[in-house]
């Protein structure tokens, strides 16, 4: 999981088989990496995943999401894994989620990137990662 300065978002790329413990560690790693940047954009790329990996949407909503929101996360582009029958977010949220956070489900990384760029334009996001010292607009 790394900030991508050129695109001004954080990209999480998951590959292989990831068990629930690894998934929680990876999600927590996002919080550690995102903290200094106050970046509202996350591209969550699951194309390289195999098999079921994480089934706790409740944990994401109850434990992880409040911290991510405090750090400024507002837009999540979730790219489903190739075996879509195991992708818990696309099964749980088949339609876009809009509220404090906007979650969109995609089948191709390029579509997710385009959507994040549209979100950036819609809120006038001209800052560079690592330079922004304020919380992003809501």
Care to describe what's here?
By secondary structure, this protein is α/β, with parallel strands linked by helices. Helices cover 36% and strands 22% of the residues. Strands 1-2-3-4-5 form a five-stranded mixed beta sheet, with helices on both faces. Helix 3 (88-92) links the parallel strand 4 and strand 5. The longest helix has 15 residues, at 20-34. Residues 129-138 have low confidence and may be disordered. This is STAS/SEC14 domain-containing protein.
Describe the sheet with the most strands: 5 strands, mixed
Shape: globular
**Coarse structural class:** alpha/beta
The chain-level mean pLDDT equals 78
CA(first)-CA(last) distance: 24 Å
Keywords:
single chain, 138 residues, alpha/beta, 5-stranded mixed beta sheet, 4 helices, 36% helix, disordered C terminus, STAS/SEC14 domain-containing protein
